[in-house]
Amino acid sequence: MLNLKSLLAEHTKIDLTPVQSAAFEHYQALLLEWNQKFNLTAITDPQEMQLKHFYDSLTCLRAIPPDAKSLIDIGCGAGLPGIPLKIMLPGLKLVLVDSVGKKVEFCKIAAQELGLTDVTALHARVEDLGQDKLHREQYDWAVARAVAPLPVLAEYLLPLVCVGGSMLAQKGASAASELELANKAIRILGGGQAKVDSFELPVTHDQRALIQVVKERNTPAQYPRKAGTPSKKPLG
Fold first, then answer.
1. Is residue 190 part of a domain?
2. pTM across the whole model
3. Residue 77: what pLDDT?
4. Residue 199 lies in a domain
5. Range of the domain at 109
């Protein structure tokens, strides 16, 4: 049987505490319960959730340090990777963003049920947040998982990150080819040289990659462009 605690113990240096283990069990129960009401996630097998949702989310800790102060999760869906990261880093200020209202509602209830503090869930378009002074260049980390191609994702994430902070994109086998197409956009938006950390998930051996870009300069004021424009006309 796939078990998050044993997967982490075998393949990482992470040792879940009893409190953290209980939080993941509760979170999984909430996901399964809510998924019967509406489509939160295509992965509904409990063991598969342990690997492809929770373990996969926690691979972000290969890049994000324990003392990270703030993180915004774009296109969070059911709260992934943001909620698993918050369970592991309770001092993290977490903002979860999705354009689907029911998913945002779930994230609010999940955070409350799990006793997670300093968590905000927003029903919003990321392009609007990137031009909002309350969010623009306010975060140490901006992360996204399976949201958009990297040239588009750079325009979503880098405007939200403070200078010295990082965007982090969770990608699969297409990481290298996506990065080639995104390098110009990254430079335009204030990012430095991308760092790619490639690895495999245990058991399934699915290819994964974390693409981290440290922000070196302020993003020019015209970015992000209006909602819908980055996906229709990617920078590059």
1. no
2. 0.97
3. 95
4. no
5. 4-164
